[in-house]
Design brief:
Spore Coat Polysaccharide Biosynthesis Protein SpsA, Chain A, 318 residues, 13 strands, seven-stranded mixed β-sheet, 38% helix, single chain, alpha/beta
Length: 318
Amino acid sequence: MRAVIMAGGEGLRLRPYTRILPKPMLPLGNRPILAWLLDRLVAAGVTEVTLAVRYMGYVFRSYFGDGKQVGVPVRYVEEAEPQGTAGPLRLIPDLDEPFLVVNADIVTGLDFRDFIAFHRSRGGWLTVATQLRRERLNLGVLEADGERVLAYHEKPERVARLGLGIYAVDPRALAYLPETGPVDMPEWIAGLLADRRPVMHYETEAPWFDLGSPEQYFAVMERWPELEGQMRASGKGRSGLEGQMRASEEGRSELEGQMQASGERRSELEGQMQASGERRPELEGQMQASGERRPELEGQMQASGQRLPGTEWRGSGE
């Protein structure tokens, strides 16, 4: 099976790091994020990889070349302008058999071989890898009808089914891509659904991390010695990684929750610090202007019998 890796984004949320390297080429251990993903795909039986690149595309070409170090041929298509998360597929010839589409900035223990088999067995035109995520809200939630309260739930759990940025696609679905302009996956899938074409979802509990934000990237970086050890322990036969990762799934889920909370707090603090830093020149200017005007204001207020806070006036006899 062929895999198309979407690697054209600029990674704006990860600036300034992505001013030096494109997001999928940021390091995890001593290798890029994308190298680990390609290992998983090749272990699952992928026989050819196409990288859809735009931002700093030369970095991908320089590192992966023609794919000799990956173990399968690696080819490239380059977007002249941003084409969205699905649009680059229009640039790739000969997509005449089922293929994978995967975002380049994820790390996952997903069993790609099972995912591919599921897609082929269900007859869907497109299959989305999904995962249920549960989040405990920190506040009470009310249900209301106008001004009348119907129910009050104390810190309820919210459950959502998330798309993981991993898709299996039948070539027939390509006919539903608009001919021009950027197009994202949700728009493409909406077109299929509107025409009643079968779109399936494959639910997995495998570990999955989106490294597109600073908090998630740094959280995985902190855990990487554990995850890298599991990768290396499976050697070239990396298909065994799924079992290892599932075996410690409960512990990893707990750590993931802790890291997510830490990441959210980190993001909040970084935002506050950035906002403070951006306002510092403004505030310093205001304070300087206030200091320069203080003698003037003191004179005016002394004449009117008032005083500025913290100021002691001295008479001529003092």
